[in-house]
Amino acid sequence: MKQLQIMNIKYLYQLLISHMTPILVAFLILSFSFSQFIENLVYENKVEELMTYGEQIGSLSNERMPRGNTMTRVRSYSDLLKARNIHFLFFNEEGKVNFHPAKLPPDLKLSEEEWETIKRGEKLVVKRDLDRFDQVVSLVAIPLIKDGTFQGGIMLTSAISGSERMISEINKSLFTIMMFTVFITVLISWFLSSFHVRRIRKLRDGTSKVALGDYDVTVPVTYRDEVGELSRDFNEMVKKLKESDEEIERLEKLRRQFMADVSHELRTPLTTIKGIIEGMRTDILSGKEKQKGIDLMHSETKRLIRLVNENLDYERIRTNQVQLHKVRVSLVELFETINDHLAPFAKEKGNRIEIEAEEGITLFADYDRVIQILMNLTKNSIQFTENGTIYLKGQRGYNETVIMIEDDGIGMDPEEIHSIWERFYKADVSRRSLPHGEFGLGLSIVKKLIEIHDGTIEVKSKKQQGTVFTLRFPHEQTT
Predict the structure, then answer these.
(1) Does 91 lie in the same domain as 20?
(2) CA dist 460 → 103, 380, 411 (Å)
(3) Does the model's pTM come out above 0.70?
(4) CA dist 289 to 161, 283, 293, 344, Å?
(5) Residue 358 sits in the same domain as residue 437
(6) Looking at the domain assignment, is residue 59 inside a domain?
(7) Are residues 309 and 338 in the same domain?
(8) CA atoms in the 13 A half-sphere facing the CB of 234
(9) 158 occurs within a structural domain
(10) Rounded CA gap, 150 and 119, in Å?
(11) Which partner from 5, 20, 69, 369 sits 20 to 30 angstroms from 155, CA to CA?
(12) Contact status, residue 402 vs residue 417, Cβ threshold 8 Å
């Protein structure tokens, strides 16, 4: 409950409390300790002074001289000590006062415990005595021992009103210093707390804007403390959120475009198939036209299946549901297989495919998947090249096999190179009407397949100067 109550206090006041409490507690402890030290020091000095005078007076009583001379010297000593507000008296072994030169209470008596202390030959010290006097007095009693026999003692007293005044003045000074310190502490704490609260408030305002979807927020970072680090992390977080939001928006735009393209691609063959079926059902089509219609339906059906398969294939690859069955295959044989499948398509666009690879170069990969990779990349080069040449090159690298697919087609801008691996992306609107790779999934599938082969792919391209895809596949690892 107390913790909840503290948490309900504003952070500014929490900082003030946290700053001031230790300082005030420490100052109070130091002030009390210092006051006690000064007070004890004053009383100790007063007792030590009384002891010194008592021993000097006691030595006079032990000197061998006529009685009258001794009393004369004692009285003169008494007059001297009066100037220092110190009074003394002598008492005999029975506790009766036998010399009373000062104006002390005539019935001044020691308690039984104090009297026993004196009789044992021990000195009696009372730093503060207010019971037997009308003011605070320090009292010292020194026993007189002669020839091993207790013969009485000397009692000295001194009012410590002056010392009390000094201690009081010291306490007043300490209180004044404490009040001044509290004022300065509150002032500095308020300034520092307000400063930190303002910085936190900026973070809070920035967080509120981010929560509303505003990612153009920055918090000033001017100090290298924890709040400064938090502000820097906040700005980095907002930057990442903005990038993610832009990426999501861009991918969503691509997705919408893809859905529009897919809808168009689906509608066209479905409309064609529907028309042919309707013609066959109503016997509008003749024998020859029926065969053409069946061939067209077959072609359009394959196209629809290819669209569905590409999407399913991409999802399987993206979610790591593809198992590779790697074998060592001849690179030249792979290139020839690609040439056999795509040479007619290349010829339609006036292109030719050239193979440049030494015999004996092999590739350690999944045969079906590497065919899929090379087929997609070669199709891509054919689609963007007219009356040109597509080169399929292979060479040995250090612990790797390097494949290059090069064309002299229209090329790409740097911005396009960055985006071609993304799902749904199409580098050129004209691709939508092409019979191969029209759905914008081919290159994204290629990149994923190469990655799960632990390989890499790079692209170099310039507008109107062609494109080169460089693939690197690691050799088979031996244990």
Answers:
(1) yes
(2) 117, 14, 9
(3) no
(4) 134, 11, 6, 26
(5) yes
(6) yes
(7) no
(8) 24
(9) yes
(10) 7
(11) 69
(12) no
